[in-house]
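Invent a record, attention on C-alpha cells:
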Amino acid sequence: MEKLRELVFRLCGEPGLPGEEHSAAALLAREIAPFADRVEADANGNVFAWLGQQGAKERVLLDAHMDQVGLIVTRLEKNGLVAVDRCGGVDRRVLPGTPVLVHGAKELAGVVALTEHPEKEQSDRLWVDCGQSGEELGRLVSPGDRITLWQRPVSLLGDRISCAALDDRSGCAVLIRCAELLEEEPLSCEVVIQFSTLEEIGCQGAGVGAYRVQPTRAVAVDVSFASQPGVPPEKCGTLGGGPMIGFSPVLDGEMSRRMVSLAQHNGIPYSCEIMGGETSTNGDRIAVSRSGVPTALLSVPLRNMHTAAEVVDLRDVERTAQLLASYLKEVRE
C-alpha cells in the first residue's frame, strides 16, 4: 500500500478549489500520462486521458472530480483580518482554529479566527488571521483569492490516512490505479478517464466533459459517508469495507447489479448505497448528458467529510480500483 499512499498524499498536496484547479490538474495529467495513449484538457480545466481500444463502439467514461472544498476571500478588513466565505460545502462547525493557506500573490499561512459565538454566526461571517497588517495584507491578498484547509497528511493505524482533499483526490487515485491495473490488458472498449472540475459547486465540469466525450456508458467515482459517531450505520459505508455501490433512480440498475456480481465473484468486499433520488455526485450530471448515459456510481467510504481531517482506508481505494478494472475488462461491443 505504500505506493498508493504516496500517490494519494501527492494528489492531496496540490491546491484545487473550484475555478482554480490548475495546479491539481497539472499533477493529475502527469500522474495518468504513463498509462494513457494521450492526455488533453478543455477550457473548463477538465483533464481527459484515453486508453483501451480507440474508436471502439463502446466508449466508457470514468469520472472523478479534482476540486476540493475551501474558502474564498470576500474583502480585507482594516484590522488585518481577511473576511471569507465558503467555497463549496466546507463544514463550518469545525472551521474556527483550522490552519489554512491563502493563495494570493504569494502563499500565506493563516488560521480561521474564533468568534465569540461561532455556532450563531452565518456562513458569510468568517475571518482568517494571517498575522499581517492591513497595508501589508493588501499587497498580497485580493478578493476572489482561494483558501485551502491545511493539515499535514498523516498515516493512522493500519492502512488508514487523514488529510484534507481526500474528497475526491482518493477517487482520482482510484482512476489512476485502475489505469495501472489495465496497462497490459487488451480491452475491447475505449476508456476515457475524466478528472473533472467544479463538482463542489454544482458538477458543471462533469456535465461539460460528458457532453464532449459522448460515452455509451459511464462510472462516477466519488466518496461517501463512512460510519462515525452520531450517524445512523444503515446510511453509511464502513472504513475497510470496500467500495460502496450506488443504487438510485438516476443510476443504471443493470450496471449497479453487475458491479455487485463482479465484487462477489472476485471476493471484493462491498456495500450497497441506496438513494431514493439524486446521488449528489457527478453521476447526476453525466447520466442526463445529451440523450442520456447509463451511469454507475462507486464510492470510497470517508469520515469527516468536507473538513481538514478527512479519513479513508487505502484498502478501499485499492478495492474500488480492482472492481472498476474488472468491470472494464468485460465490456464488449
